[in-house]
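Moderator note: this is an archived Q&A kept for reference. The question asked for a predicted structure of one protein chain; the sequence and the answer are reproduced below.
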Amino acid sequence: MKIVRFAFKKRLTHCFVVLLLLVISLQSVQARQSKSPCQVLTSSGSWTDAVSMDFAACANTVYVANAVLHTTHTYGIWGQTVIDADTSGEIQTATVDDLSQIDLNSLNWEYWGNIAQADTLPDPSSSQNDVTATPVPEPLTLDEIFTLAEVDINDFWTETLASEGVDYEKPDIVLYDNARVKTKCGTAPSEIGPFYCGKDNTAYFPRDFMTDQHDRIGDYAVVVIIAHEWGHSIQTQLANETGISIQRELQADCYAGAYSQYAVNQSQKVIIEDGDIDEAIASLFEAGDGGGSWFDRGAHGDGDQRRAAFTKGLTSGVGDC
């Protein structure tokens, strides 16, 4: 089966040269290869949840988010470093001491280069900073997919519900590593798979489960699962609750399909190739025998029901869910 590719408008061969090219010395390269919390400033003025990644991945995330947020500049934080990316690929950074008191207009910005024009950036492998272009294409990590999907799905629901005059609150997204997780709905073992807790408006995703979906099916399978659990938050906010039932789960599948319609036709973040969604959904929604509630026919419906619900959202949008 062909692996789903989760591609971006800006080619990954340009994005991931950041690891080699957004530096001016070997010392700065070594420092930035370590991992630190990365966050992106959203259009609402809030920061996304922190995800640990290296500087290159964080800079890439900020740059790609530019197209999603429809702004001339997008800002991010990596550790104590503030990152500024504009639509042309110009990257600037500034170091701050107090993350709670950031004034973007008063920072001492340093220019690092243009990631859209790799051949204008210094090669950190040379002590003389010789100019070279060395693209290093890399697949997105699970954490990066979560960060970018969270921004894009939130944009979709913000636009969709605003047009309906509905007050909307973004759910929190938690990708957890432990065998169990404590929530306001109780303590849940990772074996149950992803789930949404209405009492804290949070969707929880066990890393092992999501890694398996990513590795076996593809990047977009991860996004569809996030969109499904996000759909349960929408149900709660619309007071469209029917308890734990197949109908509730199938509506969340339909909402995931509606988001995918947006991803195909409107999103400026992803490019979905012909057949990718069909392949992902054929695998993702195939009901299994056990292995956690995500694959429980009695809770979520069988494979045909789930594919039909997803396809309804994909072809007809939220209104038919």
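Archived answer notes: The first strand starts at residue 35 and ends at 40.
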